[in-house]
Amino acid sequence: MNILFFSRLFYPHIGGVEKHVLEISKILVKKGHSVIVLTEQYEDKLPTKDQIDGIKIIRINNGKDNWFKKFRVWKNLWKYRELIKKSDIVHAHDVFFWYLPFRFLYPSKKVFTTFHGYEGNKIPGFKSKLIHKIAEKLSKGNICVGDFLKKWYGTKPDYVTYGAVEIPNHKSQITNKYKIQNTRLDSAKRAKFKILFIGRLEEETGIMEYLKALKILKEKGYEFQLKVLGDGTLKRKAEDFSRVNKINAEFKGFVGNVENYLPEAVFIFTSRYLGILEALAYKKFVFAHYNNEIKKDYLEMAPFSDFISISKNGEEISKELINFINHKKTINTKNGYNWAKDKTWKSMASLYLRLWNIK
Hints:
Strand order of the largest sheet: 3-4-2-1-5-6-7-8
Largest sheet: 8 strands, mixed
Strand content: 15-25%
CATH topology of the largest domain: Rossmann fold
Distance between the termini: 11 Å
């Protein structure tokens, strides 16, 4: 089958949607399907045409984000209308509007949509809900990443997923080298807990609230080491806060190998599905942050909500951390692992094939 994916960003750009499309595409290619990913050329140095692991990549330069961008997108895609015409399956990852004019040009074409999340730090308004509803109605089927989308957008999904993860091959990788369960109360403050933050450095991922929590812990005499895996507009602010408050933090920027950092960490700070699944796959204690009602539902409506700690600010996060360190509260990480272990990329690819009715 000839499969055409639309994704605003794609490899080598790092992000949840980018990894989702990459891993699904790899498996589909191995199954003998032809996969083309049509995406934005977010850096001039990236070639217009590329290939990785058998996946064909076409990058288009859509220019700046403004009101006219959608017309530039449609103009660029017009050049590839024969590619669209010859595709057996067209699947948009959030950016259904890219395909909108072609939906009427090729009315019998099988087109599908994956709704991956919501608009950053915003509560969805009428326009956002309308765009989702149009994409849903004009698609032959859809996948929603998260049950919260039904509540906030009124979307009726064919399938709901929470992402996928590669489960470690070796049991030694999914066992905390530092056994927090065995930490004596009188030595807890002297222990250097290794903490990992995974995500973009933006308001919605809670980087500043996590740092505020660690400031409180430091003032109470607890020792820790924090590694920050990610980048974003709050990087400078986060670095300055850490320096002024003498927080033991190392900012690594975006990394493509999160799994290399997970085995040694005790606590994971992350609030996105992909990061949470990766942490659960390594039997880690996850502390997730929300800053508004949709993000709260994003976390609390997820089936793994009982396996993680969910807090709204730095004060709550610090209390949760202290409770865990001093054994006043615990989570059975084995339950989280058991939930995550079958959420593989292979099973995710099978979900897409079922949606497309391809055996």
